[in-house]
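All the exercises in this workshop are built on plain-text protein records. Sequence and backbone structure share a record, each on its own labelled line. The question running through the whole workshop is how a given chain folds. The record below serves as our worked example for the rest of this section.
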Amino acid sequence: AVSHFSIWPNEFVTYPDLFIKAGYHVGLTGKGWGPGDWKSFRETNPAGPSYDAFKATPPTSGISNNDYSRNFIEGFLKARPSKETPFCFWLGATEPHRGYEVGSGIQAGKKLKDAEVPKFYPDHNIVRSDLLDYAVEVEHFDRHVGKVLDYLQETGELDNTIVVMTSDHGMPFPRVKGQIYEYGFHLPLAVRWGAKVKPGRVVKDFINARDFAPTFLEAAGLEKHEQITGESFLELLLSEKSGVIDGSKRNVMLIGKERHDIGRPDDVGYPVRAIRTPDYLYVHNFAADRWPAGNPETGYRNVDDGATKSFLLSKFDDWYGLSFGMRPEEELYLVGQDPECLKNLAALPEHQAMKQHLRLQMEQLLKAEGDPRMLGQETFFDTIEYVGNKSHGWDAWIKHARSPVNTPE
């Protein structure tokens, strides 16, 4: 479960730590672990030492000047002790985080008609343009990855390198990032490993972010640390099959959230737990009396500011409600037919048996994993320190609202 802007206790071990211990050259550029405080506990980011010296003129005002690919090629690899030293690198582009340069997609030659608008947004040119601006930043990241792959190919190391390309959350738009719906947590994932991974396959088995660490360790012949809770999916990579490969093992996924951002009374979170199966998504909102995207008077701070957000907030209609309105305690979606999660089946009599089954299965799995919220210790999450900027928190907004306002005579 997510607790945004928390601390990194120094007893936690990461797979980069284990690779450093095994003699690997380890590093990152851009965004590693975060946001949160690791500097009070560690010398380097949990993802490894940073290589961010090289800068470049960004193509738009919303894009970082970090020259990611050059920092890998001329920074990280040049610091490699020898060509025989194995390496582990995290290329953490901040794109496509917001903000975007408004209109940059159209300026880049993209057409409004080509934008694919999710069904939970109105089909409006403001939304279409915002999606095109988002695409510009995705492509910026793609180009840096392309440069890295080209360099590894030129140096003969590409086929001996496991390349993983994914995201840490869905697009930074209303009802997606930080929200427990399909678009928010069902992320793209592509893996390349020379001749070992048969290309062109589409695998439908569920993979969790925590499965990456044991996979990398197994591929490198290293032991799995006792703190690591995920399971290696190396067998899926080495298989030649497509579709569902291990349907009996990787057919369920747990999702959770506690405090993703602040901006409610006492800066409480919006606790959610969910379970995803091949057919269904069941969601339990534990505090359905709270605003899921943050309170209106604090600006719905759990949604990044942008053109689509501003447009939805300009009209308090059904579109606004889908992204910012209150939600029921229970939600149930038939994801294959409703990937946008618009038709809540939780209250329908014909779906009660499935809803109860999924809720029980979710609770049993969470209890087995020691989730405090399932063990009657939900107040534990309120004790986790928030180390981010509190300028958009509840107290700051209340103070602002009570400040005297100068008015003309």
